[in-house]
Every structure is written in structure tokens, then in C-alpha cells.
């Protein structure tokens, strides 16, 4: 009798342990990282991605999660600095994320990608446009919901030649992977189109004064200026140029196509051109995403918000399609399935570049960026 009681107790205990184990397994979350500049001068590029991921995940979890599991976000700040990005990546790997939305800046992205690759973690950036990130074949784990800089640079160059009618350019950059890469591509395409590059020079990011290089622009005979880099330096350059009476067309990239540039540069921003992600704000999914952002966070979303929203949707859809968190299965799903997003219906090619979305040229008119048709 006692033996029977002991056996029954053991069985009951085993059943209880199995039940606890099953509950624990069912309660395990799917962890997705969000990495980028969440503080510092370039936070206006990174924080919208955090908000986008939060909105997508909140909606998914409200419907029961993915394959019966809730999604958990792990958010890490790299300030868009390559030296911080490696530590950020290591933290996310330690946190057992299965995918990362980010990073934001190309240099930081490049620093982190090797760590994610070694850990077999899918990484989708909403904004890192440096071509070698996908075109070198070095990072099969990397995808992006934005077109690469060669497409952006070619568009800018043809706009400069065909629409602005410029003949001689001064091309400046911030010496970084993103800014210098864009500038070099514009130089290449411009010379192929018969344009003269009278000045090609890098400047030091964060410098308080750029009068020396502004003087070089004036002495070069250039009838237009191209900037490869971000808004803090661009705002200083346009101000110092216009203060010297140099009203040359100023053409830049999606590192400047941000409302923060207009806020910082003020009246000097008027007339500036910048390439950037196509305007899909009339897409019903984009309208809803923006409305949800306003309702939850109380303001308009910033740069790359829709790109990050689409990236998060793509990751979630791939996990759903894969039936789990296997790296190879998620990678295959991302490259074989189309997803309806605020950017439109997108997928990714074998290199990891987005299919179904590209760049446009914008100009600051009346204190806001307007897409030029």
C-alpha cells in the first residue's frame, strides 16, 4: 500500500514537472533586437525604428503572438558609432535574439554584422545603404528595407545633370563608410556623364567651423555642391555657404532627408535637395502606422519609421512562415515571400536588397521636404 502511494506520488510529481516544463516552454518569448542611435546627435534616425518595432510587436502580441509565442523586444543603443556597435551586438547575442532590426548607420552596421553572422542572426536595417553590405557577399545574414547607395547616387547624379543642368561639382563627405561611399559613387557616375568634379574632399564630423572648405568651394568654380553624410554637418555647411553669398544648389542623401536637418538649419535649409526613400505616405498601411504612432507617442514619426515598420513586419512574417526560429528557414522565407507593408508589397533578393521599393529626390520648400516628381 505504501509502495503504491509512493509510486502514485512520484507519478503525480512527474506530471507536475512536465506541466511546469510545458508551461515554461509555452511562455518562452521570441526575442527580436532593435539596435541603432537612440541617443546623441543622430538619435532622430534611430528612435523612430524603436517606435516602429514597438507598434508592430504590440499588434502581433495582441493577436496571440507568432506560432503561439509572444514577441519580446531587446533595445540597445549604439549612437551610430562603430566602436559601440560591437558591444551592442554582443549584448543582443547574449540576450538570445533571433533577429535584429538595425543597425541605423552603415559604419555601425558593418561593425556589428560579423558578430551576428557568426551567431546566425538575421539582421534587417531600415537605413544602412552602403552597397558592400549586401553586394560583397560577406554578410548573408544581412537584409535592408532601403535601396543601396549606388541606386541613390545614380538618381542624384542624373537629377544634377538632367534637371539642374549643372556642369561642375564640389563633392564633400564626412569620411565615414556611408558618407564617403555615397560621395565616391556620385563622383564616379558624374564623371561617366561628362561632369567635372572640381573638388572632392572629406571634412571632420563635428567640427564647429567649415569656412576653409567653403572657401575651397568658392575657388573651385563649382556650380553645385554634393554632400555625403548626415544632417549636423550639412546644416553648418549650407549656413556658412549662404552667409558668404554662395547660393549654389546643395544636393545630399537620405542622411540629410530628415526634418531634424530643417529644424537645425532653419532658413538655410530652404531649397536644399536630398534623395530619400520614396514617399508612400498615401499607402493605407502607412496612413494607419503613422496614425498609430501619433496616438501612442503623441507626435509624427521620424526618418526611416516606415522602413523599420516594414522590416519588423517582414521578420515576423518570416518567423510565422518558418514555423519557428530556425535561421535558415527564416532567411529562406524572407527571400521567397512577399509581405504587404507601409512601403508596399516587398520581398528581398538573394543579396538581401529590398524588392519593390526605391528612392526619390526631395527639396525643402516652405520649411518641409517635398517629393519632386
For the structure shown, list the relevant keywords.
2 domains; disordered N terminus; Rossmann fold; alpha/beta; five-stranded parallel β-sheet; 13 helices; 15 strands
Q: What would your notes on this structure say?
A:
With 373 residues, the protein is of the alpha/beta class. The protein has 2 domains: 30-146 and 281-358, Response regulator (Rossmann fold); 150-253, Rossmann fold (3-Layer(aba) Sandwich). It has helices at 2-27, 43-62, 82-94, 106-118, 132-135, 149-163, 177-192, 211-220, 231-243, 259-265, 284-297, 305-322, 327-336, and strands at 30-36, 71-77, 99-101, 122-125, 142-144, 168-173, 196-202, 224-228, 250-252, 273-277, 339-341, 344-348, 354-355, 359-365, 368-372. The strands form 3 sheets. A 7-stranded mixed β-sheet has the order 7-6-8-9-10-14-15, sandwiched between helices. Helix 2 packs parallel to helix 12 (305-322), helix 6 (149-163) crosses helix 7 and helix 9 (231-243) packs parallel to helix 10. Residues 1-26 have low confidence and may be disordered.
Oligomer: single chain
Uncertain segments are: 1-26
**What average pLDDT do the residues reach?**
93
CATH class of the largest domain: Alpha Beta
Instruction: Note the overall shape.
Output: elongated
Report the radius of gyration as a whole number of Å: 24 Å
Could you give the order of the helices and strands?
HEHEHEHEHEHEHEHEHEHEHHHEEEEE
CATH architecture of the largest domain: 3-Layer(aba) Sandwich
CATH-defined topology of the largest domain: Rossmann fold
Structural class: alpha/beta
Q: How large a portion of the residues is in β-strands, by DSSP E?
A: 15-25%
Largest sheet entry: 7 strands, mixed
| Number of alpha- plus pi-helical segments | 13
Amino acid at each position: 500500500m505504501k509502495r503504491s502511494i509512493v509510486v502514485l506520488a512520484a507519478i503525480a510529481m512527474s506530471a507536475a514537472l512536465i506541466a511546469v516544463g510545458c508551461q515554461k516552454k509555452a511562455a518562452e518569448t521570441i526575442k527580436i533586437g532593435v539596435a541603432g542611435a537612440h541617443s546623441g546627435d543622430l538619435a532622430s534616425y534611430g528612435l523612430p525604428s524603436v517606435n516602429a518595432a514597438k507598434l508592430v510587436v504590440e499588434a502581433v502580441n495582441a493577436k496571440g503572438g507568432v506560432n503561439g509565442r509572444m514577441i519580446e523586444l531587446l533595445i540597445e543603443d549604439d549612437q551610430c558609432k562603430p566602436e559601440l556597435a560591437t558591444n551592442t551586438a554582443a549584448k543582443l547575442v547574449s540576450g538570445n535574439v533571433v533577429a535584429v532590426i538595425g543597425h541605423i548607420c552603415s559604419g555601425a552596421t558593418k561593425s556589428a554584422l560579423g558578430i551576428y553572422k557568426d551567431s546566425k542572426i538575421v539582421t534587417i536595417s531600415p537605413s544602412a545603404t552602403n552597397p558592400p553590405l549586401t553586394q560583397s557577399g560577406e554578410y548573408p545574414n544581412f537584409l535592408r528595407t532601403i535601396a543601396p547607395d549606388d541606386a541613390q547616387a545614380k538618381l542624384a547624379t542624373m537629377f544634377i545633370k538632367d534637371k539642374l543642368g549643372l556642369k561642375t561639382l564640389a563633392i564633400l563627405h564626412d569620411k565615414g563608410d556611408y558618407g564617403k561611399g555615397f560621395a565616391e559613387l556620385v563622383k564616379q557616375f558624374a564623371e561617366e556623364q561628362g561632369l567635372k568634379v572640381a573638388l572632392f574632399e572629406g571634412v571632420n564630423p563635428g567640427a564647429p567651423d567649415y569656412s576653409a572648405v567653403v572657401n575651397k568651394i568658392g575657388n573651385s568654380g563649382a556650380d553645385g555642391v554634393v554632400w555625403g553624410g548626415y544632417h549636423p554637418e550639412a546644416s553648418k555647411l549650407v549656413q556658412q555657404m549662404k552667409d558668404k553669398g554662395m547660393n549654389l544648389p546643395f544636393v545630399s542623401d537620405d542622411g540629410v532627408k530628415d526634418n531634424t536637418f530643417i529644424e537645425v538649419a532653419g532658413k538655410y535649409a530652404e531649397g536644399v535637395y536630398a534623395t530619400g526613400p520614396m514617399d508612400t505616405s498615401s499607402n493605407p498601411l502607412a496612413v494607419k502606422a503613422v496614425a498609430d504612432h501619433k496616438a501612442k507617442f503623441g507626435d509624427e514619426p521620424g526618418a526611416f519609421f516606415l522602413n523599420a515598420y516594414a522590416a519588423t513586419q517582414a521578420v515576423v512574417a518570416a518567423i510565422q512562415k518558418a514555423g519557428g526560429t530556425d535561421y535558415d528557414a527564416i532567411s529562406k522565407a524572407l527571400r521567397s515571400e512577399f509581405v504587404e507593408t507601409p512601403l508596399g508589397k516587398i520581398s528581398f533578393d538573394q543579396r538581401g536588397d529590398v524588392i519593390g521599393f526605391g528612392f526619390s529626390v526631395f527639396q525643402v520648400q516652405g520649411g518641409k521636404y517635398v517629393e519632386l516628381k
